[in-house]
Amino acid sequence: MSRFCEAVAEITGLNAEDCQPGLQALSPTDRQRVICQDARLLDGSLCLDRALAQSDPQAARWDYGIGLRKGRHTLAIWMEVHPARSGSDVQSMLAKVHWLKTRLGESPRLQSMTQGPFRWIASGKVKIPRTGSWARQLNKNGISHPQETLRLS
Question: What is the tally of structural domains in the chain?
Answer without folding.
Answer: 1
